[in-house]
Structures are given as C-alpha cells and as structure tokens.
Amino acid sequence: MPQELTSAEPSGEPAGGAQPDLQYSASPETPPSPGWRWPLLWALLVLVAGVVLGTVVFAAEQYYFVWEPDVTSLPGDGRRVAGSAGQRPTAPVLVGDRLAWSQGGYTCLMELPSGDTKVIGAASGGTDLWPPALDAHSVTWLESDKNGVDPADLWVYDIGRGRRVVYQIGVGAAGPVVAGDLIAWPDVSGSGVQMIAALDLATERRSVIATGDEISAPVIAGEDSVGWLVQPGAGRAPSFVVRDLRTMTDTTVPLAANGSGLTVTDIHMGGRTLLWALQSSTGTRVMAFDLDTHATNVVAQGAVVQSPATDGTVVIWAARDGSSDACVVMMRSLKGGQASIAARPQIWPSSLAVSGGRLAWVINDGTWTYLDVVKLPS
Amino acid sequence: MKLPRRYVPPPLGAFGQRLLLVLLVELCLLNVADFALTRYAMWLGFATESNGVMDFLFKQSDVAAALFKFTVVTGGAVALWFLRRYRAALLAGVLLTAVFAAVVAYQALWVRSL
Predict the structure, then answer these.
(1) CB within 10 Å: which end of chain B, N or C, has fewer?
(2) Do B15 and A34 lie within an 8 Å CB cutoff?
C-alpha cells in the first residue's frame, strides 16, 4: 500500500512551541488494505460448496444407481440375505466370522458380527460367474467368457487390505479355491489335457500342480491342503487326491469301492477332514476321512440325507424330520457323540455351510430366495 | 448516429486478486489430492482411469502421470494468475475450484465406501 510522508495534524500547542515531528500516516484518499481474511473466507466458501456438490452427487448415485444386497437381521445374531429373480443369493461360503456368496452377477462379502457387507465383484456382461471361495485372508472367484474364446478373469480380494487383483488365466478354467497363499483351479492345457493350475499369491508365480486326463473338478481346499477328484475309466470308482501344502505329499482317498455302483456327491473339505456322500437306491451315507489319522468313518446315513458340509470340527446335513416332510438340519461333532438337531429351516435348503459356530443355508419359497446364517446350538 | 458503448467491466481489484490467488492455491492442492485418490483407487483394483491420456501415462509410470497432471493444472493456474486483471479469471478460478472440490469429495467418499 503506498503511503506518503506527511505532516501530522496541528497539535493545538501554542505557537512557538516545539516543532511537530514528521511521521507516516495514511493518506485520506487511499482505500484501506482489503486484508486476507475475506478472500480466505470466500475461497473456503467455494471449497465447501464444491464438497457439498460432490457429497450430494455421491449420495444420489449410491441411492439410485448402486446395487446393494438386501441384508436383515435374524433373531440370535443371525443374518438373512434376500433376493428374487436375477438376484438370488447362491453358493454361500462360511469361514469364521465371514460369509461370501454370489448374487446375480455380484460377489459379496459380509462380516457376520456387524453385518457390514461389501460388493467385491461385479461380473461384466458376456461372462459366467463362478462361486467364490473364501479363507481367512482372501476371497477368490472366476469370471469366464460365455463363448469360451477370451481368457478367464481370476479375481482375488485381499480382505485385510481391501484390495482386489485380477489375473488372466486359461479359457478352460473353472471354479477356483484358496488355501493360504495358493489359489488353485481346474484348467485345460493347450494340448487339451486336464490339469490343476495354481497361482502363488506371495510370488505371483503360476504353476501346474497336477496333470492327467483322469483329473476332474471339483478342486477343493482345506487347511494347508488342496485336493482334486480323479475319475478313472468306466467301472472304476472315483478317488480324491489331497496335496498337503506343508509337506507337498499327496494322499489318495478312494471314495467308493470299485464296482459298488454308488454315486459320489457333495465332496467337501473342512480343516483336515474330507467329506463326501455316497448315494445308493436305498439311501445316502456321509463319509468323513481324517487327513491326519487316515481314518474313514460314516458320520450320517439315512433315506434322505442331503447337502452335507463340514468345517473340520462339526458335520451338518439336511434330513427329514421323522416321518413328516419337514426338514431339519442335523449336526454331529467329528470328535464323536450323537447327532442332534441344529436348526429347523421352514423350507428344504438347497445348500449348507458351516464354520465358526454358525450355519448357513439357502432356501427358496418360489418367489424369493433367502440365504440365512444362524448360530449353531452350543 | 451514436453507437452504444460496449460495457467494459472494471478490472479486478485487490480483493478479487487475493481471492483468485487463494483459489488457485486450493486448485493445485485439490489436483494433488485428485491424483492421490485416483492412484489409490486404481491400486485397490476398484477403479480404472477413464481419461485416455492419463491411462496411457499411468501405464508408462506413476511419475509420468503425476508430472503431466501437475504440469497441466499448475500451468493453467499460472495462466489464470497472469490474466488476473480480468474478472473472467476469477470466475474461472471459482468454477474450477468448486468442480475440483466436488470431484475430490466424491472420490474420497467412494474410496471410503469400498
């Protein structure tokens, strides 16, 4: 601001007194300095207006255009996911306090204690979405080209970091599984041979861990282990090969006797237990193989036994309630003891999962499909 | 016949020039925040760069993308400062800062929702 050297106003002292000092003062014609306060406040106002605009746009987009699963609470800390045509929840996977599932083209993850749900995957058009696999650290799922032309997208979501990475893998890839740092999936080599391909998440190195024409889906993961089905020729029963990822040794588990005529279904691994069902014309037996002791036990059997599952400590299955048509979910500890009723779903469940003292099932009333998670009785 | 006089707005005063300076500083800081949030959302795997030029530069390196983005916006801010005697410079500063603030607020909320 320009300032002039001027004389001071008359002091009113008598003439002949001391001469007034010369000093600086503002000229009356010069406007006062505007200072910085008002420019700063106006700039802040512009900033706030922009932030409000961005917030309103975000809220409107979330409300009108962003899909979220319909999650409600059930009595006893339970959770229910509901969906109807095109958005039905399927393929629940329970591990500890987390639930992963597919719904329409979406892959979702829920923290069960809080009910916080994230949509971690949205399949693009023209792809088939494979069900998710879950372990304590990651969720993985596959989107494969409907026409079988383009490579499949293997997605891996790191739960701790909230980060997802996509890897392009073979055209013939199918449902992946995760066991610690290892992702494995069935695939077909360039020469048309069946194989089990793998990706090490720590090093991002890819490998083929098994190959052969008898190898078949599903690939299943347990604690520090990955296994796959081996379907030999006609007349020979299938077996399941489990690779221990700590010792890199294989254990082959015969699932049925050769020529028995039994049908093998519902193969699961939970902890260090391999579980499968053997169906005959008279009923179903649920078998459990302990990967540490190599002992095989019949853990459930009956005329109507469906959808068995295990987490390595408990086995659950759906069964008929006495002579009625009603359904009960039964449970039995792998340590021994009698089977008991775990829950009474209103409708026969299409799939069951168990982990961390919780039980999940999918039921369909014709219009709506519900994915329910309830606590196991203690 | 007398032609009507063309209106010439008075030049931007000291207040307007100071406001423009603060807005341009805000704009540059918001540009840095926009870059950081975009890069973070891409690292999380939930976003892709829709700007073709930036997408190309991100594929080269983060430094190349950052240099380009910071140069363009800072250069624009310096150009507006040289044009500060015009009121249009202040209007441009207000609009650019408000839009950038909206974009950054939207991005921050979106990243938080992931």
Answers:
(1) N
(2) yes
C-alpha to C-alpha distance for A193 and A211, rounded to whole angstroms: 7
Q: How far is B17 from chain A (nearest CA, A)?
A: 9
The answer as to whether B1 is a domain residue is no
How many residues comprise chain A? 378
Confidence (pTM): 0.85
Q: In this complex, which of B15, B45, B102 lies closest to A54 when CB atoms are compared? A: B102
How do residues A83-123 score in pLDDT, each as one tens digit? 998 899 999 999 999 999 999 999 999 999 999 999 999 99
Q: How far is it, in rounded angstroms, from Cα A178 to Cα A182?
A: 6
Residue B11 placed within a domain = no
- For residue A39, the chain B residues in CB contact (below 8 A) are 15, 18-19, 21-22
Q: How far apart are CA B11 and CA B84, in angstroms?
A: 9
State the best of B12, B17, B19, B110 to mutate against chain A, taking most chain A CBs within 10 Å.
B19
Tell me if B53 is assigned to some domain: yes
CA distance to A172, A196, A326, per residue, from A154 (Å): 12, 14, 40
**Domain boundary assignment for chain A:** 123-259
For A299-327, write each residue's pLDDT tens digit. Answer: 998 888 889 999 999 999 999 887 777 89
User: Which one-letter amino acid corresponds to residue A70?
Assistant: D
* Domain coverage including residue B65: 27-113
Instruction: Name residue A84's amino acid.
Output: S
Domain total for chain B? 1
> Which of chain A's residues have a Cβ under 8 Å away from the Cβ of B23?
43, 46
Both tokens assigned to A39: 């420019």
Q: The complex's ipTM?
A: 0.90
Query: At the topology level of CATH, where does A123-259 sit?
Result: Neuraminidase (2.120.10)
Shortest distance between the Cα of B7 and any Cα of chain A, in A, equals 25
How far B80 CA lies from chain A's nearest CA (Å)?
16
